[in-house]
Amino acid sequence: MSPVIEVRNLRKTYGSGDTAVHALRGLDLTVEKGEYIAIMGASGSGKSTLLNILGCLDVPTSGKYLLDGIDTGDFDEEQLSLLRNRKIGFVFQSFNLVPRTTALANVELPLVYAGIRRAQRRERALAALDLVGLSDRTHHRPNELSGGQQQRVAIARALVTSPAIVLADEPTGNLDTDSSREVLGILDRLHASGRTVVLITHEDEVAAHAMRTVRVVDGRVAGVLV
Amino acid sequence: MRVVEIAAFAVRGLTANKMRSGLTTLGILIGVASVILLIAVGNGASSSVQQSIAGLGTNILTISPQRAQPGSTVKPLTTADAAALVGPDSPDVKYASPVVSVQATAGFGGTSYPISQFIGTDPRYFDTTNSGVAQGNLFSDNDVQQARKVVVIGATVATQLFPGVDPVGKSMLVNNIPFTVVGVLAAKGSSGLQDADDMAVAPLTTTQNALTGYGSLTQIVVQARSADALPNASAQVTTILNGRHKVTGTPDYRILSQDQLLTARTATTETFTVLLASVAAISLLVGGIGITNIMLVTVTERIREIGIRKAVGAPRSSILGQFLIEATLLSLFGGALGVAAGVIGSRFTIAGIQPVLVPSSVLLAFAVSALIGLFFGSYPASRAAKLRPIEALRHE
After folding, report:
1. What is the ipTM of this complex?
2. Cβ distance B226 to B59 under 8 Å?
3. Per the CB 3.0–4.6 Å rule, which of A28, A123, B78, B373 could disulfide with B331?
4. pTM for the whole thing?
5. Beta-carbon count within 10 A of A123 CB
6. Which of A52, A110, A117 has its CB closest to that of B312?
């Protein structure tokens, strides 16, 4: 069986000539189905760039990225959006919920773009919100929710489409200790139920939740800690 | 199914900022309403001109002196010319009324009023121009012969100068010369550009004596025996006048039939309508630019939201659709309100003109307003759709 993520010699360069910044310099990474991986590294090491490319939010300058066995290299923007919708659940450090829109509508959003009917959409979004323990907050808007609750809505949104991978870019970076613990607990449960999770973090105790930790230094994988 | 969802996003986007959406809508509302209303006013003006000219009758010829051309002499039109037009040489001419007209200031009691047309003529003129009397009497041939200072006034003059008073029998000063009012004409209504009731009619002799002097007539108004006889009458008049004025080349007078007058006046009001419509079209354009402006602001303000939507898998087409629908809804809503405002506004008399709605202008203005949303919204919307997800998300 092919791995969920297979990255070969991935390079990403911003700008050109003397001012060019090499964020990734030939990175290799493989993530098997059901794995829970933490990516760590100093700021500027290229870990966020890596995650953005894994989430199809950005495209690499060169290299190969196979997602669920599909080569994303020759996909156009329209196919990439389909991939983001069906295969990837992305959790951001800053939550990124649509403002002035209820938690339920935020979670339903990916299902709308997937073309799923209203009744089924509602059912699945409510189930996802229930999974993150927010079934009593479905009609609250983001500005009526705490940071931890907003992040849990964001996680519900990421997993409502049953994606192949859940990517989380420092999901606890903006949260206090209690909220962090809740969010990590949810990710643990996702992993336990068989989901593939990749997260970026600065903190060792967050990384401790993962099966293995990948260290990124200067745009390359420096070491894997199991 | 998908379109409905995207339209729902668009509606939510618009209602999130009601003030801004409202003001943008107002721009289109004013544009559409003014297109409809101003075209209706122009149309109203031209139809009332047509009515008033048609009201004069279709068997009328108006002869007026031509301006002097270099190298030719102009003989004045005289009362004798008018008298010569009726006779055995011109079997198709029924009447020919000599007319002088002048602007005069009328006074009664403490008030004074400038009459735009003070006309001196003979009694046949009333018949020729379909002028009925509302109060009192018309003057007679005898009044003309005796040069009595009597006058028949139009409805506007009566209301302006004699409010609440029966003018018949009163003495009115015209350029400080006393005239006795013998009658009031029935109201004819405004012809859009001028008020047909803002006039007074006195005997020709009196008017020449007191006001204009004995120069050229302003017009000779000829009534043909019937509308069908008009071409013959015109030919007979030409022959007689050419003989009397010894015309060799271009005649020193001009004959206009009601048809020609109608054509000339219609052309004028059409120009007027086009002018009004283009002013209105400009305001519609300005409204459209307002939509572009607001949509650009909206897109810039919501770049992050666009990034989020793209990150969860919104295809380019749905982002494009959402913002296009927002822009089109703004302009359609504005257009619908504008149609309502225009239709309601056209029920009122504006500047003395009763507007007449042109149904095609309503349709056109509404269709244009919808297209404006599509056209002026497409640039901001395509900018939103082209954003790269990661760039949109990073935007602060």
Report:
1. 0.91
2. yes
3. B373
4. 0.68
5. 13
6. A110
